Amino acid sequence: MTNQQNGVQLRIENMKKKFGSTEVIKGIDLQVDAGEFVAVVGKSGCGKSTLLRLIAGLEEKTEGTIYQNDAPLSKENDDARVMFQEDRLLPWQDVLTNVGFGLQLQNDWQTGAKQLLQEVGLEDHASKWPSLLSGGQKQRVALARALAANPRLLLFDEPLGALDALTRIEMQGLIEEIWKRNQFTALLVTHDVSEAIMLADRIIVISEGTISYDRDVPLPRPRERSHPVFKEIERELYAELLEESHKQQTFAMQS
Ligand SMILES: Nc1ncnc2c1ncn2[C@@H]1O[C@H](COP(=O)(O)OP(=O)(O)OP(=O)(O)O)[C@@H](O)[C@H]1O
Question: Taking every annotated instance into account, which residue ranges of this chain make up the domain ABC transporter (predicted)?
Fold first, then answer.
């Protein structure tokens, strides 16, 4: 089931992106429903972050159109926020101010920022400097800061990539809970196949700048890693990724 009320609908048509003479995105067509959670998987360098940056309006496309709720996007996407692998917190500001950064034009921004810290379970850390937090806590602050803008689209660019396995699982639970509560549309770039199956309504694989695989995850939430359908999708995804990798190696040896 998807969160339809707050999230935006996306439609990407024939998206292409070149850096110099190298075409990184070679023609992507993708539709994402309002409130849908889509995971983007693929080999390092296949263009996942570039796709996210194009949707965020942080990168200029070479060709194609992105429609958001049927309106073409032409500049920075005000409805979207990106959460990166590195926390990007301001080290000279305390946690509360970091979260309230986007709220500071509002009179009572401290109350709003405290509520967001509560949402991510860090209400007792408001006056700390970021340097005193663990990696997982810093990512919780980064998530609260992203939520401050009440985004209708959250773009997660491998945000849990630097965390230890247990913290990562905890953060997956938090992201799922917050997505359900806030009802935004979500795109998650991840290298972790089980993370994709745990969180996404749908998984796409990007290979050589195009979508090579696209399937729904028909599992109830919260999900069990031991569920036979979970295992089946896991096997399918690894097979797809290995096949793509094999094709690329063969191509590299022939050329
Ligand atoms: N600003 C840029 N200028 C030139 N080349 C770029 C730029 N940004 C990305 N690229 C190239 O585009 C390709 C795709 O990069 P991108 O970061 O989208 O890949 P990715 O799939 O997210 O990789 P990873 O999983 O390692 O983060 C890479 O070959 C990268 O070197």
Answer: 10-233
